[in-house]
Known about the structure:
Elements: H1 6-19, E1 28-31, H2 42-54, E2 61-65, H3 69-77, E3 82-83, H4 86-95, E4 98-101, E5 114-116, H5 135-145, E6 148-153, H6 156-166, E7 171-173, H7 187-195, E8 203-207, H8 222-235, E9 237-241, E10 259-261, H9 269-274, E11 278-281, H10 286-290, E12 297-300, H11 304-310, H12 317-320, E13 325-326, H13 329-337, H14 345-358, H15 366-375
Parallel strand pairs: 1-2, 1-4, 2-3, 4-5, 5-6, 6-7, 8-9, 8-11, 9-10, 11-12, 12-13
Helix pairs in contact: 2-15, 8-13
Amino acid sequence: MLKIxxxxxxxRALFKMLSNTVPKKKGLLVFYPTHNKSGFSGNLKxxxxxxxxHTSRQDYQMIWCTNNTETYNRLSKLSYRVIMNxxxxxxQLLRANYIIQDSTYTWLIGNFPVIQLWHGNGFKTIALLxxxxxxxxxxxxxxxxxxxxxxxASSDQDKTYLLPSFENENIYVVGSPKNDIFFQEQHLNxxxxxxxxxxxxxxxxxxxxxxxDSGDFDPFSPAFWASLNNWLQSENYVFVVKKHPxxxxxxxxxxxxxxxxYTSKVDDVQELLLVTDVLISDYSxxxxxxxxxxxxxxxxxxxxxxxxxxRDFYYDLKTLLPGPFxxxxxxxxxxxxxxxxxxxxxxxxxxxxxRGTFHKYxxxxxxxxxxxxxxxxKVN
Length: 380
């Protein structure tokens, strides 16, 4: 059984008591990212900006919490209200009308009304259905999930899996706020290309793998990197790598002219997706987001047999994903160089079916739907 030190138990009990005695401040929204704690990205970023642009400060006050000085300074310059001090953060969490999150934070046990936007709509089991969670943690999670007043789902199918994952009926099919970016003005695309120095390339290929729970992550051979770069140079293409925030092992060569590791440059991966022409990924939920664009996706799953032993899925991946499924880097390079597979009728049908599984709405109004759903919630 998971043992919790006594002082931690005391601190949790204190916060639980305070959560029921400290008055909530009407209209106070505290954005508390727990997936990418140091950054400004994802569903929380999109909804935070939407609320700033579409509501009065008399009605709603937004606070962003961070543990990163660079993020603090950047948001402060934009005149956003942002805090770093842990004591102040926890005080604001106690006072919040709603706490906006993107993953689980088990300290919020008590009267903490949470809007859970999550960080992705994918196919790996999460929350109470994640078998890697020990019994003691599951008990803590159930208590935490009881605070969720709104859980965002992207489709009716997504909702069917979120219900048993959270054991909470407050699931609203509203879409993912971060995906509203795909429906913004065309000039944003050009602005982002310029921001990341990609405007001179004819095509942008992005590699965005998920993290591995254990072991080294070395997906490509030195020969592949060299051959890839030679081809990219000849076509004036670029191959951009964006690692998962939790990945610590993937090494990207830094001496290749047309291969770029943008992990530290790209805080919000949705911006990279917007300027990407072809996506290469694996088991990451990012592919469901990118499917909105209708652009090609390659599934490079060289470690498939091992990976599915370590993780559980809601779906049979080989049935759900449109493919193509690639297991070695030679085949990957062939599919990059010859994209005829993308235009076949069978592939397009599978692609559209995959997109429809995860997206009920394709209109760029997910933030608005979250806001409207939030206004209908009654907080005890």
